Structure formats: C-alpha cells, structure tokens
Amino acid sequence: MQPDISVKHLNKVYGGGFQALKDVNLEIYPGEIFALLGPNGAGKTTLISIICGIVNKTDGEIRAAGHNIVTDYRSAREAIGLVPQELHTDAFERVWDAVSFSRGLFGKPPKPSHIEKVLKDLSLWDKRNNRIMSLSGGMKRRVMIAKALSHEPRILFLDEPTAGVDVELRRDMWEMVRKLRENGTTIILTTHYIEEAEEMADRIGVIREGEIILVEEKNQLMSKLGKKELRLQLQNPLDKVPGELTLEPVELSEDGYELIYTFDAQEQQAGVARLLRTLGELDIEYRDLQTRESSLEEIFVGLVHE
Amino acid sequence: MNLYGVRAIYKFEMARMRRTIMQSVLAPVITTSLYFVVFGSAIGSRMGAIENISYGAYIIPGLVMLSLLMQSISNASFGIYMPKFSGTIYEVLSAPVSYAEIVLGYVGAAATKSVILGVIILITARFFVDYHVLHPFWMLSFLVLTAVTFSLFGFIIGIWADGFEKLQIVPMMVVTPLVFLGGTFYSIDMLPQVWQTISLFNPVVYLISGFRWAFYGVSDVHVGISVGMTVVFLAACMATVWWIFKTGYRLRS
User: pLDDT tens-digit profile of B95-148?
Assistant: First the structure.
C-alpha cells in the first residue's frame, strides 16, 4: 500500500545551527491514526511544520498523498489539513467566514453544505455568526479544526489538539477523530496526553532529540515494552526475600507485608505459577494478590529517558 | 492557478476594509479634506496661480498622491503583518497557493482599497476646489500603477516589520517627508537650482509630476520619465518580493 505520508532521510538544521531533526524516516498509511509522541523540543512540531510547508527542510524527501511536497506542492497541500498547537485565529472574523476562507484558500469552490456539516459536527452551528474573539478557548479550538476540515483533506495533522481543553471536549474530539478515520481520513496527532494516544492511535512513533527512536503498532508496543507487576499481600511480614525466590525478580516492600514480582508482559506467565508454587512450598501465606500492566505513559517515559 | 485561493485572500482583505471603514476610508478623506480647506480654499485663495493653475487645483494631484501612497503602504503592510503577528500566517503558508498568488491576493486588495480611496478623495475635492482632468486615461493609469507599486512596497514592509512600531516608521519617517518635499504644494521649478537637483533624487517627485501632468498637462519632469521611474520602482519591489519568497525571509524558517 502506498503511504499517505512518506518521509525519507529528513534533516532540519535551523539558522543558528540547531539540528531539530536527524535523518527522520517515517511512513504513515491511509486510514490510520498515528500518534507522534515526544518530550518538549523533541522535534514533533518541526516535523509537522515541514510536511505542511510552513518550515523549510534542510534535506530529505517528503511525499504527501504520493506528491512531493516541494515539486508538486499544490497537490500535496490540497490533501493536508492542519490544526496547529497554538490557537491562531483571526479574532474579528465570524466563524462561518473564517471556515469558508480556509476552504477557498485551499483551492476548493464554495460548498455551503459541507461547511454547514463541519460546523454542525463540531457543535459550532449555533455560533456560526459569532466573531471568533467572543468564543471560549475550547470553541476556538473547534473553529481551528473546522478550518482544517473545510477543504475535505484526506490527511489531517492534529498538533496537540486537546491541549488546554476540558475533559468533555477532549472526549468529543476523540469521537470526531474516530469518525474521520471511519471515513478514510489519515490522522497524525502529536500529544502530551499519553492517554490520548493509548485511547486512539493505531501506531505510535516516539521522537527524541530529533530522532525517531521507535515506530510500532500500539498493541505490539504495549505488549513488547510493557511490564506486568504482581503484588502479593502477605499474611505475615517477612524480613527478607527468601533465598528460594531469588531466581525471580522479586522485591519486598519496606514493611515486609508485600512481595512485588515484575515481569515482561509478553512472557508466558510461567514465572507467576513458579512463584506461587514456591510460596506454597515455603508455607508463606498471602491474603490478596493484584496484577497490573504498565501504561503507555510508563513505556514512553522509559523510552525517552533511556 | 488557485483562483479560489486568490479570491479568498482578496475577499478577506476587502472585508477587513469594510470592518475598519472609519480608519481605512473616512480618516484619510477627512484629513485630505482639511488640506483642501486650509491650503486650497483658505490660504490658496490668497496665493497666485502656478503655471496658470489656481493653487487649490494645483495641489490636488499631490494630496491625492499623499493619501494613495500612505494608504497603499499602510493597507498592504498591515494586511500581511497581522497574520504574522496573530500566527494565522500558518494557514497561508500551508495552503496550495503560489507566492505570486499570495502577492496577488494581498497586494491586489490593498491596491483596490487605495484606488477606491483615491477616487473618493477626488470626488470630495470637487466640493472645495474646481479642477479638471486633461488625460483621464493617464490619470487612472498613474493612480493604479502607483497604488500597485506602493502596495508592493507596503507588503515588503509588512514582512520586514517585527513590531507595530516598524510598520509606522517607513510611512511616517520616510514617505511623508518625501511627499511633502516632492512637489505636493509647489513646483520644484520654484526652488533654488541646488534644491531642484536634490529633489530629482526624490522618487515621489516623478509620481506627483506625472500625476499632475495627467490633470493639467504641466509637469516638473517629462511624463515619460515619470512613467519610467514608477515602473523601475515597481520592478525593484517585485524583485524584492521574489527574493523574500525564494529565501523565506521572515516567513519560513
């Protein structure tokens, strides 16, 4: 399948000599939701800005919807919608006019029925005649999404789409993103909310100091890099981990009432059975046990701090 | 060509004029009317004719040119500076519009506003001073050519400026003195020889001279030179805009 976004050997060095991107290679396929994660200053926004034509690349080749973003920039950009991180809006414009402006700018003839649909989908229809400056932050964020969707792009970039929005709006946006994907739109989002990526993404890329350090299916990533933890609450406290258990990565809590066994989520759970059997043999009784899997956030923190 | 894109920018800019009609149209019309009242009617009636043209009528081309230049620069510089300032420039930079189309949208709108304003001022002048236009075609041509040229110049200033103060510096500190010293209120023939020579380095002299020729058939320099100088300035502005987009100067990092 031809990727919707193809980035090959992309480098970006800013005027001052700072290298923001280092030999970035990335492919994003039609209809997927791709989450790009990385700490502040990792290069996420630079990467998106280059693909969208806002920042010049130093070298490398980028294609969007099969079109080179430099030599065939019109076709490439027609296919892309961008919701930037900052709330950049023209305060004095009315919602309807602002969204219609975006459609025209991207070379599409007027289509009021589409603008109406977008505004209704984003709960902006009642606000269509309001000036943007009179809207709340969350509503302005919706306007920016409406502008990005006004020209019916097949690729949508969402740069920190839910930064600073309330929980309800965040859930609404997730719902909207899912609907877009169902209609075949490819979605690339950057986010600080790992929960967001965990909730929505099909694949995840992690960028650190300008380098893509990992691209993986979300589920595979969770199982490959995720850890599981078994906590056993003991009937009676222990002074130290019994010698028979030292083969397993087992720790004892400070008060001696809890044994903590950590293992790879991918592994067969033979270790758990072995641990429980050994405890039985040693007559160590436990009141309760709990298991938990590490979240994407813990995986992400582990990756970027390696 | 992305005609819808050009139209979107053009319409957006024209809508901005409608929103700020007091500042865009009314303020310059009132200011220029005051010039007509003071210099045209009050003082002008006590001054002798210049080249057989009453003083009030003589200063009309220069005053129209003053407003045209200031408004062309102001409209175009503000038009491109505001998206830079507010951050909405991201949308124009990421849209499938070429550099030429961006310029056409912004500069076209700024020039249109200036021409409309110029015509309004000419109509207003009629209430204060009696004047005639000997070469209407050339008058309109000068009006459009100057509006386009100085809108391009304003576009360059808007991209160069990184603060509101810089937007004002060039119109106030450079263009206004050049217009006042460029023969708006007098013929440069009235100056001592040395100042006549110095005045020829002022590009506005050629604009006002050519424009006045279109009205009354009299000029400080030959009309061909006026047209030539305006076209040279237009070409210089176009070359600068081309360089800005080629390098991404203050637009794309």
Answer: 999 999 999 999 999 999 999 999 999 998 888 888 889 999 999 999 999 999
CB contact under 8 A, A97 and B15: yes
Q: Which strand ranges, in their side-by-side order, compose the sheet holding A59-64?
A: A19-28, A5-13, A59-64, A67-68
Residue B146, domain member (yes or no): yes
**What residue numbers bound the domain in which A233 lies?**
226-304
Which residues of chain B are within 8 Å of residue A100 when distances are taken between CB atoms? 8
Query: What pLDDT, on a 0 to 100 scale, did the predictor assign at position A262?
Result: 82
CA-to-CA distance for A277 and A257, rounded, in angstroms?
18
Is residue A6 pLDDT above 70, yes or no?
Answer: yes
Burial of A236 (0-12, 13-18, 19+ CB in 10 A): exposed
Kindly give, in sequence order, each residue whose CB lies less than 8 Å from that of residue B230, ignoring residues fewer than 6 positions away.
Answer: B142, B145, B146, B149, B206, B207, B210
Q: Check which CATH number belongs to the domain holding A264 and give it.
A: 3.30.70
| Count of structural domains, chain B | 1
SS3 A197: helix
**What range defines the domain where residue B64 resides?**
3-44+53-247
pLDDT tens digits for range A106-119: 999 999 999 999 99
Q: Which of A167, A189, A222 is the last residue before a domain boundary?
A: A222
User: Which chain A residue shows the shortest CA-CA distance from B12?
Assistant: A101
Q: How far is B151 from chain A (nearest CA, A)?
A: 21
Same domain, A240 and A210: no
Cα A69–chain centre separation: 23
Q: Do A88 and B86 touch (CB under 8 A)?
A: yes
The reply to whether A264 and A201 lie within a common domain is no
Among B91, B96, B248, the residue with its CB nearest the CB of A74 is B96
Residue A41, token pair as written in the block: 């200053």
Enumerate the residues of chain A whose CB falls inside 8 A of the CB of residue B4: 103-109
The answer to whether B12 contacts chain A (CB < 8 Å) is yes
- Residue contact B88–A82, C-beta within 8 A: no
pLDDT in tens, A241-253: 888 877 677 888 8
